[in-house]
Amino acid sequence: MLTVKALRVLRSADVVLYDALTAPAILALVPSTTKLVKFGQALRNKGNRTRRNKSLNCRLCQEGKPSYA
Question: What is the 3-state secondary structure (H, E, C) of 4-46?
């Protein structure tokens, strides 16, 4: 179940990062023009949560930066 706001954000996003816990039905709501990036994995090893969060934050920043190529 998603909120209306979450659905609006998914439909307007340029990039969506997701992991193994994301339901396929949710990914089906994302437009075909949106870049889908599989990132991370299910939280099996809680000891590395901080490192994974830092890695996710770095990836979010990279995806958010404009390309000057």
Answer: HHHHHHHHHCCEEEECCCCCHHHHCCCCCCCEEEECCCCCCCH
Q: How far is Cα 38 from Cα 41, in angstroms, rounded to an integer?
A: 9
Residue 19 structure tokens: 């992991």
Span 10-41, pLDDT tens digits: 999 988 988 888 999 999 999 999 999 888 66
Which residues share a beta bridge with 35? 15
Q: Are 18 and 39 in contact (CB under 8 A)?
A: yes
**Which of 47, 45, 38 lies closest to 17 in space, CA to CA?**
38
Tokens representing 37? 């990036």
pTM above 0.85, yes or no: no
